[in-house]
Design goal:
Elements: H1 6-20, E1 26-29, E2 33-34, H2 41-51, E3 54-58, E4 62-63, E5 66-67, H3 68-82, E6 95-98, E7 105-106, H4 107-119, E8 127-131, H5 151-157, H6 164-183
Parallel strand pairs: 1-6, 2-5, 3-8
Antiparallel strand pairs: 4-7
The structure holds NADPH dihydro-nicotinamide-adenine-dinucleotide phosphate (NDP) and dtdp-4-keto-L-rhamnose.
Dtdp-4-keto-L-rhamnose binds next to helix 2 and strand 3.
């Protein structure tokens, strides 16, 4: 591991602590998580889309949008498999795994899809402008490439996320009526 920020170092330290605690464990790394709950990129976009006529969105960072509901499904399936009789004899079920939505994009590509789906629910659509990371300075550096290889989880558990656009559509279908109610 080679963390590029304090945040990344804290994630690496968390993983090391799990491994040092010994015993059977599964660490699941993810990225670009969104959900109808809490604060996340999808909700930020829908809010800003109502407030501003145009948004500049970073188009040179790559990743795989991941639904929190899909993570929950994957973790439950892993836990059920791990607690089956004889699972302890299968080394492949333990260790470090990756899980993200299937397929990659940029934040700009993600935003375009959010608004393409939201438009179908009558949500306002702002102008979207692709920008570089250097045009959106933040105190903490973000990775240029957050795309994770999820093949180990697929091989060990047969678990694979749906294509990211499918899961996003489900989230937007839940969120848009709430947003439109707030503005009514
Ligand atoms: N968002 C993402 O894309 C990714 C997130 N992660 C990791 O997943 C985890 C969750 O991230 P995310 O959902 O974005 O974060 P949020 O900040 O949205 O949620 C954090 C949650 O942890 C709870 N919490 C914070 N401190 C404590 C505490 N001391 N005791 C009990 N609960 C606490 C908060 O409770 P409350 O709401 O009451 O404050 C909140 O529900 C983090 O470890 C993050 O680093 C990993 C990869 C990607
Ligand atoms: C609001 C806004 C964001 N952005 C970009 C900047 C940033 O790179 C990107 C996402 O911004 P956010 O602040 O939502 O998220 P950010 O903290 O960069 O996202 C991360 O969260 C942590 C916890 C992770 O682990 C990551 O995998 C990832 O999901 O969107 C724009 O380009 N224009 C905008 O108007």
């Amino acid at each position: 591991m080679a963390p590029i920020s304090v945040y990344g170092a804290s994630k690496a330290a968390g993983e090391d602590a799990v491994r040092a605690a010994a015993g059977r464990h599964a660490i699941v790394r993810t990225a670009w998580v969104y959900s109808p709950h809490g604060q996340n990129f999808v909700k930020t976009m829908l809010r800003l889309g109502r407030e501003r006529p145009e948004l500049g969105i970073v188009d040179d960072q790559h990743g795989c949008p991941t639904s929190a509901a899909d993570i929950a499904d994957a973790l439950v399936a892993m836990a059920l498999r791990m607690t089956e009789p004889g699972a302890g004899g299968h080394d492949a079920l333990y260790g470090t795994f990756h899980f993200t939505g299937m397929g990659a994009t940029t934040w700009y590509g993600f935003a375009r899809e959010i608004f393409a789906l939201a438009a179908g629910h009558g949500h306002p659509v702002p102008g979207l402008r692709p920008i570089a990371t250097s045009d959106y300075p933040t105190p903490a550096a973000r990775p240029k490439n957050s795309v994770l290889d999820c093949s180990r989880l697929r091989a060990a558990y047969g678990i694979e996320a749906p294509p990211w656009r499918d899961s996003l559509a489900a989230c937007i279908a839940r969120l848009c009526p709430q947003f439109l109610e707030q503005t009514a």
